[in-house]
């Protein structure tokens, strides 16, 4: 599936299926209602996806510079060097 070409039929399969579903049920939605639904979905889903991204980088992806340790394993991470504490605003 390519996201670069909006006219590509492969990108529109979900839209076609949605249209068929709407035609069967007779439900219609106007652009304002769709906008409200999209905003609510973004407001609900963004923190979940962001949290998953952090968890993935910390515990799953060993190639990530933020990787800490695999799940259910303890790793001791030393505190920042004293000169770095001043530049980051962290006071340990």
Entry keywords:
92 residues, mainly alpha
In this structure, how is the largest beta sheet organized? none
> Which structural class should the secondary elements be placed in?
mainly alpha
Q: Strand content of the residues, in percent?
A: under 5%
Q: Helical segment tally?
A: 3
Shape: elongated
**What's the pLDDT, averaged over the residues?**
76
* Rg from alpha-carbon coordinates: 23 Å
Order of helices and strands: HHH
Q: Helicity, in percent?
A: 40-55%
Distance between the termini: 49 Å
Q: What is the total tally of β strands?
A: 0
Give the domain tally: 1
Regions with pLDDT < 50 over 5+ consecutive residues?
Answer: 1-6
Q: What would your notes on this structure say?
A:
It is built from three helices and no strands. The chain is 54% helix and 0% strand. It has one domain. The chain has helices at 13-25, 31-60, 82-88. It is elongated and about 65 Å long. It has 92 residues and is mostly helical.
Please sum up the structure shown.
By secondary structure, this protein is mostly helical. Helix content is 54%, strand content 0%.
Write the layout of secondary structure elements.
Layout: H1 13-25, H2 31-60, H3 82-88
